[in-house]
Fold this protein.
Amino acid sequence: MITKIKGTQDILPEEARFWQEIESKIRLVSKIYNFQELRTPIFEATELFHRGVGDTSDIVKKETYDFQDRGDRMITLRPEGTAPIIRSVIENKLYATPKLPLKVYYQGPMFRYERPQKGRQRQFHQFGAEAIGSDSPLVDAEMIAYAATFIASLGIANVKVKLNSLGDLSTKEAYKDKLRDYLEDHVSSLCPDCNRRYKENPLRVLDCKVDKDNPVLIDAPKPLDHLSEAAKAHFDQVCKYLEAMQIDYSIDPTLVRGLDYYTHTVFELDSDIETLGAQSTLGGGGRYNGLSSQLEGPELPAVGFAFGMERLLLALQGSGYKLEEEHIHAFMIALGDECKAESLAIVDLLRHGGLIIDYDYDVRSLKAQFKHAERFNPWFYLIFGEAEMKANTINVKDAATGEQETVEIDKLYNVLVKKIQARYHSCSGNCENCEEDC
Ligand code: AMP
C-alpha cells in the first residue's frame, strides 16, 4: 500500500468542515479589515528564500524542500508566505498605487522539513496577511487587532497577545553584536543548539525553549533596553494604539520570532489550551521594513502575521467549537424504474434552484430507500410513485413531524422553499422573516 509521506496529512471530509469554517472566518474578517487576497505559486526560486527569509534562519539552513527542475533551475517549495508576497508586489508593481498601505492576505500550504509532532508538520497550512507601504505604528497595531479579531471570531479560549520590539535595522544589528559578545562569555552554559547558533543568529538564543530558565538568558541584554529614540517612540505609539483599541497584551522582552527579516514590532498570539500540546503559538508576526529593498524592490516598510491552520484547528476543537448539524433539504424517494427516471428532472430543477437534494442510486423498496435516506438527515422526503406520476403530483413528508402533503409538481419548488425557510426560522411557515425572504 502506498501511504502518505511523513509529516503530511489527509484532511478527511469530517475535518474539512472545520477547515471550511476557519476559511470562511478568514474571508469574513479580512473583508471587514479591508484586505484582499493575493495568491502566489507554491514553489519559487530558491534564492528568494535565501535572500528573503535569511541564510542564518533555521528554516533556510535546515528545513527547506529544494530541488532542481528539468530546466536546471533551483526551486524551493515555499516555507513561508511573506517573501513570495513581497516578490509578487515588486514584480507586479502593486506598490504603484495611491492606496498604500497595500493590504493583502493569503492562505495555503507551506513546507518545512521539521521533526513531525502534534501541531508540527512538514506540509502545513498558513493564513497570513501583510500591510505593505507604511511605517506608521498604527499599522502595527491594526495588524495585531486584525489577528486578535480573527482569533476571537473562532472562539478560541485563553488567548494571549505577546509583544516586543527589536528596533530598527541599525539598532537591531548593534544589539545583536552586544548580545553575541555577552553570550560568548557564557557559551559553556548554553544548550548545544545555542552553542552553534549564537554566533550567526544570537537573537534566536533568547527564545530557546531548552534554555528558557537558564539564568544566563534571564540576565542577557534585551532588545527593548537598546532601542534608539525613534524605535522606542514607535514602540510606545504601538502600545498606545493597542490600548485605544482595547486589545489586551503583555510585553515579552525575550520574544524575537524565527525569521531574520523582522525589525521593530514583533508579536505572537498564544493559547495554553490543552489540545495544542507543546505548540502553544497559534501565530505571530511583526514589522519587516528592509525586506522589499533586500529583494531589489523599492523601500516598502511593512507589517505582517501568519497563523498555522492546523494549530487553529486543534485550538478550535479544544475550545468546543460546534459546527451546525449536517443535513440535506430533501431526499427523493422514487418507486420503480420509470418513476426514478421521471424524478431526475424534478431533482435537477430543485438543485438548480439551490436546494440540497439527494436520492438513492439504486431502485429499491420504499422501506429500503427510507432507511438509506435517514443517513443523510433530510428535512423532507419527496415520495414519487406511479399514482403521483400519473397525477403530476408528489408527496412531501416532513421528517421531523411525519406530516405529509400532496403537492402539484409545478408548485413543488415554491412549496419546498417556503417549508425550508420555515425550518431555518423555526416557525410554522408564515413569520415576518419568511415573508421578507420571499
Ligand atoms: P512562522 O512562519 O514560523 O512565523 O510561523 C507562523 C505560524 O505557523 C506558527 O505560529 C505556527 O502556528 C505555524 N507553523 C509554523 N511551522 C509549522 C509547522 N511545521 N507545522 C504546523 N504549523 C506550523
Observations:
- The longest helix spans residues 13-32.
- The mean pLDDT is 92.
